[in-house]
Design a protein that fits this description.
The complex is a heterodimer of chains A (about 110) and B (about 110). Chain A has about 110 residues and is mainly beta. Chain A is built from no helices and eleven strands. Chain B is built from no helices and eleven strands. In chain B, strands 2, 4, 5, 6, 9, 10 and 11 form a seven-stranded mixed beta sheet that branches. In chain B, strands 1-3-8-7 form a four-stranded antiparallel beta sheet, with no helix packed on it. Classes of the chains: A mainly beta (about 110), B mainly beta (about 110). Chains A and B meet through strand 4, strand 5 and strand 9 of A and strand 5 and strand 10 of B.
Chain lengths: ~110, ~110
């Protein structure tokens, strides 16, 4: 069974800092990996989807990379802003199911 | 394009009562997922539909949980009878295909069982 781990569980940074969130998974036979953002009391908002054949995806200040062989993905956030404060979740997809990590709670201080 | 709709947004019930949640996916999306998210954890898949057929319900507690997706569009998830440990957010998501296309989530239903 796929196990997904996100470290750290919580992160606090000053505004403007570049930061990296980590996601690791145990089974490298994946179809894709999706990064989500979750605000308190809200559902999940999709940020980036990386197919297994891709190495990275970019959207604005966000860049996600995927290294299947090592079972790792990173989400890079450039020039962080207070509005980036949220919980970030990664989900690893196999043939027909997604497995979620527990998330990293990010706090960007003004 | 309208997103995934869920209702109610909040529900408080006593243990042993029953409750039902409703989800309407994005128009045209064939795959529908129900997840349970306990506070501080990532979502856990309860059941997955492809059109009106069940693809995976291996983690659905079938003694108390049931779900249906009649006509392959909207879906209901029911809990009967509820237990204290069922307190969680129930999330519905949809995607356009089965092979792990991008998932889109609804706002969720926060259930409190007292």
């Amino acid at each position: 069974k796929q196990e997904v781990t996100q470290i750290p569980a919580a992160l606090s940074v000053p505004e403007g800092e570049n930061l990296v969130l980590n996601c690791s998974f145990t089974d490298s036979a994946i179809y894709n990996l999706q990064w989500f953002r979750q605000d308190p009391g809200k559902g999940l908002t999709s940020l980036l989807l990386i197919q297994s054949s891709q190495r990275e995806q970019t959207s604005g200040r966000l860049n996600a990379s995927l290294d299947k062989s090592s079972g790792r993905s990173t989400l890079y956030i450039a020039a962080s802003q207070p509005g980036d404060s949220a919980t970030y979740l990664c989900a690893v997809g196999d043939f027909n199911k997604f497995y979620f990590g527990s998330g990293t709670k990010l706090n960007v201080k003004p | 394009e309208a997103g995934v709709a869920q209702s109610p947004r909040y529900k408080i019930i006593e243990k042993r009562q029953s409750v039902a949640f409703w989800c309407n996916p994005i128009s045209g999306h064939a795959t529908l997922y129900w997840y349970q998210q306990i506070l501080g954890q990532g979502p856990k898949l309860l059941i997955q539909f492809q059109n009106n057929g069940v693809v995976d319900d291996s983690q659905l507690p079938k003694d108390r949980f049931s779900a249906e997706r009649l006509k392959g569009v909207d879906s209901t998830l029911k809990i009967q009878p509820a237990k204290l440990e069922d307190s969680a957010v129930y999330l519905c998501a949809s995607s356009s295909g089965l092979l792990n296309y991008e998932q889109y989530f609804g706002p969720g239903t926060r259930l409190t069982v007292t």
